Every structure is written in C-alpha cells, then in structure tokens.
Amino acid sequence: MKTYALIDGLRQEYNRYTPEDRKVWTILFERQLKQLQGVADKNYLEGLDKIGFSAGSIPDFRIVNQRLKELTGWEIVVVPGIIDQRNFFEMLSERKFPSSAWLRSMEELDYLSEPDMFHDAFGHMPLLTNKTFCDFFHRIGVIGMNYENSPKHIEMLGRVYWFTIEFGLIQGADRLKIYGAGILSSIGETQFSLGDVPIRLPFDVKEIMNTDFDNTKIQEKYFVIESFDQLLAAVPEMEEHLASV
User: Fold this and answer.
1) pLDDT in tens, 144-180
2) Residue from 93, 99, 185, 186 carrying the catalytic annotation
C-alpha cells in the first residue's frame, strides 16, 4: 500500500518560475555542461540529449514524464524536499523518481544544504533514460522495501546508493568519467573527483556497504565501475550480503 499520500497531488507550478529562477538555471546549466565536456559518461550526455534539457528552458516535468514513459517507464514525482527513506525506496520500487521543483537563489549557486531541482533534474534525470541504469535504480528501491524496518540494512543500502548513483565514477575508453548525480551537478565535486587527491577504488559492493561517508563535505573516496551492466550484475551479491548480516 502506498504510504506517501501526504505528498501526492504536489506538482510543478511551471508558470510561477521567476526571472531569477530562469537565470539560475541558465547559469548553472551552461557552467556545468562546459565543465563536463570530456569527463561526463557518454550515457549521461546521450541522456541529456534524449530528455531534451537545454540552458534556455527550465525542464517541464510534464514533458519529461512523457519522454521517460516512452524510454524507460519512469516518472518524476514532485516532493517538498528531502523525504524519509521509506517513501524514497517505495517510489524507486514503483519506478518513480522524487524531485524538488524549487531552484536555489543566485546567492547559493555553489552550495546548498539540501538538493534542489538543478541537482535532481540536471544530475539525475538524464540517466533515467538508460534502461540498465534504471533497472539497477529500481532494484535498490525493491531491496529497500524488503528491509524497510531494519535501520542497519537501510544504512548499508544507502551507502550503495551514495557511492554509485550519487557519487559514482566509471572507467571510460580513454579516461575516468563521471556518472554520479552529486558530482555531475557540482562544479567543485567535478573538479575534485578526477584530481590527484581523492582515493579511487574498484567497485566492490561488500566494501561499499561497509564504507561510511560524510554528506556535508566533498567526498574523499570514490568507487569506479566498468559499466552499468556491472552495477546490475552486482544486485544478487548485494542481496546475499544483506541477507547474511
């Protein structure tokens, strides 16, 4: 039974975006797309084109949902802000992605205490056009619902989400590339993640589940996948490990 009824009925009030909102979107989009040239995963860049995002127009979720429905069957659901874990995993299990509809101010271009629409839309939504990635995303939701009453298991699953969907790196043909939304939508994290300072480790789902993170600062450790197929193939191992603890 659906438990996120309190946020049902929320929608993007597209006509209420202000000139400042549109300016913020344009600045962030142009700045970040320039930063990502040559370093963003090809699947992300292809998805950005498929979903139809541009610097000149804030995404209209009605149009986004039409495109996602055709491509992968996913849907964007507007939420008021950060939602609790049960609602989050339940939405993912139903192939729904929770997104804010508000944009940061001009004074907050580089840092926010919680994700806004630019992070949710620019960072996450392009890869919702990729079926393999979406299948992995969906499985995280299903597993999360299986352990909804176990904080320990939810924490471990949250680490997988953090080090893949939010802050994942992928080995490209010529160099490391970015696919994690938390990096893709942050100019500082983009520059830092591929530099000489952070620790980068091969993808290992068991190690990830036992690795803590700090969501208040730039990450010091990243895990590198070879492909989205590797993520999806790791789901049985993830389930087995969770069942053993």
Assistant:
1) 999 999 999 999 999 999 999 999 999 988 899 999 9
2) 185
Longest distance between any two alpha carbons in the chain, whole Å: 53
Has 75 been annotated as catalytic? no
What is the predicted pLDDT for the residue at 8? 55
The domain ranges of the chain are 7-244
**Whether the Cβ atoms of residue 163 and residue 148 lie closer than 8 Å to each other:** no
Q: Which H or E run contains 181?
A: helix 181-184
Residue 118 has pLDDT above 80, yes or no: yes
Annotated catalytic residue 166? yes
Which of 90, 124, 186, 193 is catalytic? The answer is 124
In CATH, what is the architecture of 7-244?
Orthogonal Bundle (1.10)
Type of residue numbered 158? G
pLDDT score recorded for residue 4: 44
Is 124 an annotated catalytic residue?
Answer: yes
